[in-house]
Amino acid sequence: MESIISTLFKKETKTTAAVASRSKNATLIEESDTLQLVYDVFTYSAGSNKRNSDTCLINFMFLHGSGMNRSVWEYYIAYMSKHFDNNTKWQINKMITLDQVTHGDSAEINRNLLGTNFDWADGARDACKVAQEEFLPKRMSNCVNVIVGHSMGGFQALSCGILSPTLFDLIIVIEPVVYVPHVENKLNVTIVPPRFYEALWNKMEDKFKDMNDFKKFMKKRSFYKNANAEIIERMIQFEAVHTAEGIIRTKISQQQNIICYLTLDPTAKWLIDSLPYINTPVYGIVGGKSTWCPPQNQELLVAKIPKYQKDIIPDGDHLLNLEDPGECLTKIFHCVNKFVDNFKMNMRKRTPNKDNDRYRLKLFEEQFALFKNERVKDGPIKLAKL
């Protein structure tokens, strides 16, 4: 996997400021602490790009789930290329994998700054910020931005469709967490029973006597024990920190890991109420055997998102992006293929004089005429409903 990536792509690791205006308790000392984001950018190495001049260019952003890190997507980076042997419809421009502020290398930088709240929508705002820095402006009319998110990352990918409606042209979500039952309370925050808390906590060990102990935990007792062999080996390598005391710890702390699971609400209510306003096409990959997300989760997305298409992997569980990455990758590829077909049909022809003042004035007059015809009409007058 890593050798394929190093052969095909140039990998650049970057650090940028996270969104400054965050939810209460996102940082330990709110008046002074600011958070950072670490992410990787993959672009073709010189000589490995076989792009034709008329090929559609795709920018990908990948968002991980709770407790994971950006390395889980490296399998996708490496093996995306195997689909290109006979593909002339589109080609990769950039691919970005991002560590959320409480995860991976971002967690290392922010280690003594993090508070007791990780609002998932803040993570979506961070993703939009990075995408704006890396993907905009679209210098070519045949360039498309695609965001892919799993679980919490799926929630955040959908949130990006609300927070920045035109930034991403296609949203792909894998087992997105949106609606999860919790203990009823007036504040509508996530409250879980003690037994469930303990069950989660025991899956989130963050200190180990040595690498063998860490590997044994990851492969036998962790959430990821059924993950693809290449993915789990890379996760182990990426997540392990060798301390001065001679023990191994993970980059994400046990406390920040559990905080992530307990902060879905109340932001989920905001997203649920906003789902009808996602105008971007959304493609949902669902595990047929998944029990983490209740059936109401998918029913909600199907009912509320205007351009939502669901695709089921019958034998897939909630972590199907880790456990069956080949099938997920194939579905992502075919989804992008279908989108590109429609995109090319509707793509405006590049106009050589589009920066000419006369062209711009004519374009505005045409658009204003359409706008006026749409917004100025006779009819019954009534007050807007509050």
UniProtKB/TrEMBL annotation:
Against SUPFAM superfamilies, the record matches this protein to:
alpha/beta-Hydrolases (SSF53474)
What's a Pfam family in this record?
Answer: Abhydrolase_6
On the tree of life, the source organism's domain of life is Eukaryota
| Domain (AB hydrolase-1) ranges | 62-327
Q: Which residues form a coiled coil?
A: none
Name recorded for this polypeptide: Similar to Saccharomyces cerevisiae YOR084W LPX1 Oleic acid-inducible, peroxisomal matrix localized lipase
